[in-house]
Amino acid sequence: MTRTTWWTTLHLAAAVAACISISYSASAAPIPISVSGLNADLVVEASSTAPYSDDAEGFDIPNQWAYFETGLEGQAAGLPVDGEFNADGTGTEFDIADYSGDNALLLSSATPSGVLTLDTPSQLASLHVLAVSTNGGGAGALVVTYDDNSTMITDYAAPDWYGDISGSTTFSNAFSPAIQGLGRIRLTDDLIDTPTGNPDLYETIIPLDSSKAVVSLEFTRAVTLNSANTSTGIFALSGEVVPEPSTMALLGLAGLGLVGWRFRR
After folding, report:
1. Per the database record, which ranges form the Ice-binding protein C-terminal domain (predicted)?
2. pTM (2 d.p.)
């Protein structure tokens, strides 16, 4: 092999290694995560007919306010049709579960914590939590359990649904409104309320250990004033999925093929 051939081969190998490194380190766009453990239907679907208390339960428990889907009684306000939307500011894709069934993890003074289990354990670079509270709120504890049974303690934001605030939690997890001006419906008398800019849902972005697969997530109610009436809802999860090792291997094999082809010439 001539000096030129060796030099070219080394350059090819370096280029392949760089491509693999870039591909591995690049973050994928967050995608919705399918979970089990939702325990409440907090949304009246657009196809419902009164009385709406047959179609959802109160998120604001003492006052029996709930969310509703866009189109209910011709309303332009409401949660997105079929629960799919991209968060304001970040563009994170969220997909709220079917409005005709359980579509949130509801945490209250009676049930202050709950667990969501990933239908497919996944390695995630970050977790994106869609949550909010009524009658108060703030940051709630979150325990992440990985596939090796290790855990990570962190937190998530679930401010009051009449808030419009952004910031960082105690664990420096950034949060901001994901969608605003949703309106609400009172299940005791079917009154629809559409105040300007309210209520909201919030996104919290939580970095994770991407070398392990996330199995489950234990959420605790967000309370700042220890109000017995504060309820927290976890409405959806998304995450940045780490590329499969097989993809990296294919890139490596392709690179070796290029080097071999150059060597044989």
Report:
1. 242-265
2. 0.84
CATH of the domain at 209: 2.60.120
- Please count the other Cβ atoms lying within 10 Å of the Cβ belonging to residue 165: 12
Q: State the pairing for strand pair 93-95/105-107.
A: unpaired
The residue among 170, 115, 171 whose CA lies nearest residue 143 is 115
- How many whole angstroms separate alpha carbon 246 and alpha carbon 263? 26
93 and 194 housed in the same domain? yes
| Three-state secondary structure call for residue 121 | strand
Cα 105 from Cα 113, distance rounded (Å): 9
Number of domains making up the chain:
2
Q: Tell me the residue range of the domain where 52 lies.
A: 27-242
Instruction: Report the pLDDT value the prediction gives residue 246, as an integer from 0 to 100.
Output: 52
- Provide the pLDDT confidence category of residue 11 given band limits of 50, 70 and 90: very low
